[in-house]
Design brief:
Blueprint: E1 9-14, E2 26-31, E3 37-43, H1 51-62, E4 66-67, E5 69-76, H2 82-100, E6 107-114, H3 121-134, H4 140-146, E7 155-162, E8 168-176, E9 189-194, H5 200-212, E10 229-234, H6 243-263, E11 271-279, H7 282-293, H8 296-303, H9 310-318, E12 329-332, E13 335-339, E14 342-343, H10 350-360, E15 364-370, E16 376-383, H11 387-392
Parallel strand pairs: 5-6, 9-10, 11-15
Antiparallel strand pairs: 1-2, 2-5, 3-4, 3-10, 7-8, 8-9, 11-16, 12-13, 12-15, 13-14
Helix pairs in contact: 1-2, 2-3, 5-6, 7-9
Length: 397
């Protein structure tokens, strides 16, 4: 169940000549019909902004937030590619538009992959018409595969909702992302479809809030991408949907995709949710959680299944938040390993040692921190640091 499970959308995936051995690397997600979708996006804030991000933002403005579809390639980011990169991103839109007899600014374009390489644009422009013409109601899954880079599994979402007035609507999505998952947002692309009828402001607000409480709560390695894009497109097939119900649905979709990305982070063996309570403010709670999440020493300890609290305490002390070690408590799940600055590990009974060992052996771990400084709280998803991550990121060859 994906983007095409929503009424009004079709998709496809083909080989565009970027990856070797005719692998899938080109996807198209479009409307099923002649009415453009209402569309909004959230994008990377990296100052090295990739050409497709620039083009898509410009096209959304020029079209009045209406698109007939988006063409997406994997294997090449088309970032740090200068004027030629911009020309090629525009040419991708022009090729789709020509195929469908539309205007080029009525399409989005996204890319993901290696930075600093020009696209094999001639081969891609030969493949784009095939992708457009082969798009169908069952194409969401193959599109999800075509946008993958180092992902090991496709990320998808679909659910039908009933709003507060009893009106049914659906939300579907596909996404990619497995590393450089540091907000805002992550090395990620996500495409969300809905048949819900809401106005443009509600569409944008719902997406921005959804991203803020999902993709922006995710870090794998502290690195921020040049290409991050989340697009939300509505076919407007329903009656007007209650804005609160719609916002909750988009948040659920975004959080599901973010969790799937964290689970599939390159080489990871642990998915960790860090929750900081007792902070002076909510902002300090999130900063503390992020500081711990991005610490390589802490991440390595999770890979080693070690509940050692010292590295966590050290990182919190080095962060720019209100901090007093004598009020700090740390737990893994419900098992407390530090209480008000006093280590509990040394006094563990054999049953407690067995319990913490079993807990640290789990795929999903909750690290709960109480700073004892106030009522603020914050959280973030992250993962461990493994040999697999190093091997995946040693070079481009």
């Amino acid at each position: 169940m994906t983007v095409t499970s929503v009424e009004g959308f079709i998709a496809s995936g083909v080989s565009g000549g970027i990856k070797s051995s005719d692998q899938l690397d080109l996807a198209y997600i479009g409307v099923d019909g002649d009415k453009p979708a209402l569309a909004v996006g959230v994008f990377t804030s990296n100052k090295l902004c990739a050409a497709p991000v620039t083009v898509t933002k410009s096209n959304l403005q020029a079209s009045g937030a209406r698109v007939y579809g988006v063409v997406v390639n994997s294997g090449n980011a088309n970032a740090a590619t200068g004027e030629l990169g911009l020309k090629n991103a525009n040419l991708m839109c022009e090729t789709v538009a020509k195929t469908l007899g539309k205007n080029s600014h009525e399409f989005g374009v996204c890319s993901t992959g290696w930075i600093g390489y020009q696209l094999p644009i001639e081969a891609m422009c030969e493949s784009i018409p095939l992708a457009v013409k082969s798009a169908n109601k069952d194409g969401g899954s193959i599109a999800a595969k075509a946008i993958m880079t180092t992902d090991t599994v496709e990320k998808t979402f679909f659910k039908t909702y009933i709003d507060s007035r009893g009106i049914s609507f659906s939300v579907g999505a596909i996404a990619k992302g497995a590393a450089m998952l540091q907000p805002n947002m992550a090395t990620m692309l996500a495409f969300i479809t809905t048949d819900a009828t809401v106005d443009l402001e509600v569409l944008q607000t719902s997406l921005s809030r959804g991203a803020g409480s999902s993709f922006n709560k995710l870090t794998v390695d502290g690195a921020q991408s040049t290409n991050d894009t989340v697009l939300l497109m509505s076919s407007e097939k329903t009656e007007t949907i209650n804005s609160e119900s719609f916002g909750s649905a988009i948040l659920e979709a975004c959080q599901s995709l973010a969790k799937q990305m964290c689970d599939d982070a390159e080489g990871s063996t642990k998915t960790v949710k860090i929750t900081v309570n007792g902070a002076a403010t909510d902002s300090e709670g999130e900063r503390g959680a992020r500081r711990v999440a991005n610490c390589q020493l802490v991440k390595c300890s999770w890979f080693g299944k070690d509940p050692y609290w010292g590295r966590v305490a050290s990182e919190l002390g080095a962060s720019d938040i209100e901090y007093d070690f004598s009020t700090l408590s740390i737990s893994y799940g419900d098992i407390k390993v530090l209480e008000n600055g006093v280590s509990l590990l040394e006094g563990f009974s054999q049953s407690q040692k067995s319990a913490i060992s079993e807990y640290m052996d789990r795929r999903e771990i909750d690290l709960n921190i109480d700073l004892g400084q106030g009522n603020g709280t914050g959280w973030i998803y992250t993962n461990d640091l493994t040999y697999g991550y190093v091997e995946e990121n040693m070079g481009t060859s």
